[in-house]
C-alpha cells in the first residue's frame, strides 16, 4: 500500500485536518493517510498547552473512527524524542517494508524545509506531498521532482484557535468533529483552566 504520513501535534485534531486528508486521498494515489500523533515537535519544545500524548491520540482515534482510509497512529511514541521526520520515515520503511511512504506537509513547512533534519535525505528517498497554506506561496517551477503540490482547499481552522476559544468559553462546534466535541472541551478545560 501507498501510505501518506501526516504528522502533527493534533492538539486537538479538528475538522480541517480530516477534510484536508480526505482531499489528499482523492487527489493522489494514496491508499491511506496515517495521522502520526507527535509526542514532541522539535520546533515546539516550549509549548505549555500541549495535551498529554495519550489523550491527543485518544481524541484523534475517536475522530477518525468512522473515516475509512484515515488511521490514527502512536508510532512516534515508540521512537526517540524529539521526533524527526527522517528518523520516523526510516523506521517506518524498516518496520513496514511492504508499504511505500510519502510525507504530507503544508506549504509553510516546505518553505522552511531546508532547516529540517536530513532534509536532503528525505528528498532523495521519499515523495513529499505539499498542500497550500495561507501566506505561504510556492513557485511550482522551483520544486524538486520528488515534491508534488496538491491543490486542496484552504482550511482556516487551527488547533490554537480551538484552545483559545475553550479558554474564553466560546463555542467550537463548527471546528470539531461532533464525535469528539464534548470530550475535547472537557479535557482541554482541565488543561487550560486549572482550578
Keywords:
195 residues; alpha/beta; six-stranded parallel sheet; 7 helices; 6 strands; 35% helix
Please write the string of helix (H) and strand (E) elements.
EHEHEHEHHEEHH
Shape: globular
What's the count of strands? 6
Task: Kindly report the oligomeric state of this protein.
Answer: single chain
Helix content: 25-40%
Order of adjacent strands in the largest pleated sheet: 3-2-1-4-5-6
Summarize the structure in words.
The protein has 195 residues and is α/β, with parallel strands linked by helices. Helix content is 35%, strand content 16%. It has 7 helices and 6 strands, in the order βαβαβαβααββαα. It has helices at residues 15-27, 53-64, 85-95, 107-111, 119-125, 159-167, 181-192; strands spanning 2-8, 32-37, 70-73, 100-106, 128-131, 147-149. Strands 3-2-1-4-5-6 form a 6-stranded parallel sheet, with helices on both faces. β1, α1 (15-27) and β2 (32-37) form a beta-alpha-beta unit. The longest helix has 13 residues, at 15-27. The radius of gyration is 17 Å and the shape is globular. It starts with a strand and ends with a helix. The mean pLDDT is 94.
Describe the secondary structure blueprint for this structure.
Blueprint: E1 2-8, H1 15-27, E2 32-37, H2 53-64, E3 70-73, H3 85-95, E4 100-106, H4 107-111, H5 119-125, E5 128-131, E6 147-149, H6 159-167, H7 181-192
Parallel strand pairs: 1-2, 1-4, 2-3, 4-5, 5-6
